[in-house]
């Protein structure tokens, strides 16, 4: 009898914990940032939408279980499960969306000709193992060009809940992908927060950031044979001081942000908007893509 009573108490206790966890997750997810395309941008008929991905996790039981019990942004806001990613890439093909590279976007916009129709640029931040193992094969199958921005000084490390790809993995992928893959820099070793503020945005770290940028390009040159014309902001944006520094760099053609929006002219390239892709934002993204120009 005592064992039965103890068992009932344990079951009730675990049930209460599960209910509390579910409520907390619902609260956390309900209060996170809205990543959907703004209503005003839905009205833009012609333009280039730059999609931003971080992690592409396998749809295995372990991942689904952790997603069910954790509101961690790395599992929700910054992740697209592999099955959903495949559907999204199929949607682009089915709707005959023109997927272009970052370089093609730059060339198109700098020609001073108006953008006619709808285009997509695929970008991936951080370059973790799920990008190399899960996303890249799907894009190769569709023959889609894409840009991957590397934290050049922390490749192969485990940071922020993700296992970053090593340089050998990146170079192997680059060889396999050929002209489909372009590499951007995502700082060398300043992709972290200090009391909630991106390290490179602190005024006291400005000199460090300039040196870090130079180092990231030196690493890129040593590893790939050339510097990158693409810089991608960690955490999405920089201070006016940082912006002015980056805009003055002759090697850079594009500075990617996480500002929500559509690219419509060459003026966008210094603060290029991108759409973070997740389960919340994709419906609005797909709606814009499906609307005829």
Automatic annotation (TrEMBL):
**Which intervals hold domain NodB homology?**
118-293
Give the signal peptide range.
none
For the biological process aspect of GO, one term held by this record is: carbohydrate metabolic process
Could you name the domain of life of the organism this protein comes from? Bacteria
Q: Which UniProt keywords apply?
A: Signal
GO molecular function terms listed in the Swiss-Prot or TrEMBL record = hydrolase activity, acting on carbon-nitrogen (but not peptide) bonds
Indicate yes or no for the key word Signal. Answer: yes
The record lists the organism as Secundilactobacillus odoratitofui DSM 19909 = JCM 15043
The protein depicted here goes by the name: Polysaccharide deacetylase
Quote the InterPro entries the UniProt record gives: Glyco_hydro/deAcase_b/a-brl, NODB_dom, Polysacch_Deacetylase
């Amino acid at each position: 009898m005592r064992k039965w009573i103890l068992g009932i108490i344990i079951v009730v206790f675990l049930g209460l914990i599960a209910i509390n966890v579910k409520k907390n997750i619902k609260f956390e997810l309900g209060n996170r940032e809205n990543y959907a395309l703004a209503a005003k941008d839905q009205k833009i008929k012609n333009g280039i939408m730059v999609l931003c991905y971080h992690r592409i996790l396998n749809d295995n039981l372990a991942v689904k279980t952790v997603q069910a019990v954790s509101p961690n942004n790395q599992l929700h806001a910054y992740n697209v499960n592999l099955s959903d990613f495949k559907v999204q890439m199929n949607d682009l093909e089915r709707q005959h969306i023109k997927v272009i590279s970052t370089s093609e976007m730059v060339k198109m916009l700098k020609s001073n000709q108006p953008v006619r129709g709808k285009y997509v640029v695929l970008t991936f931040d951080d370059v973790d193992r799920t990008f190399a193992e899960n996303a890249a094969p799907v894009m190769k199958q569709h023959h889609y060009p894409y840009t991957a921005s590397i934290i050049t000084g922390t490749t192969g490390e485990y940071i922020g809940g993700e296992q970053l790809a090593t340089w050998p993995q990146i170079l192997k992928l680059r060889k396999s992908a050929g002209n489909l893959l372009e590499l951007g820099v995502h700082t060398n070793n300043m992709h972290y927060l200090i009391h909630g503020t991106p390290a490179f945005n602190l005024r006291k770290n400005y000199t460090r950031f300039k040196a870090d940028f130079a180092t990231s390009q030196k690493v890129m040159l040593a590893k790939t044979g050339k510097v990158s014309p693409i810089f991608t902001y960690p955490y999405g944006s920089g201070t006016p001081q940082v912006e002015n520094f980056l805009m003055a760099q002759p090697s850079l053609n594009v500075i990617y942000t996480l500002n929500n929006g559509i690219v419509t002219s060459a003026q966008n390239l210094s603060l290029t908007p991108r759409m973070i892709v997740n389960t919340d934002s994709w419906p609005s993204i797909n709606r814009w893509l499906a609307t005829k120009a």
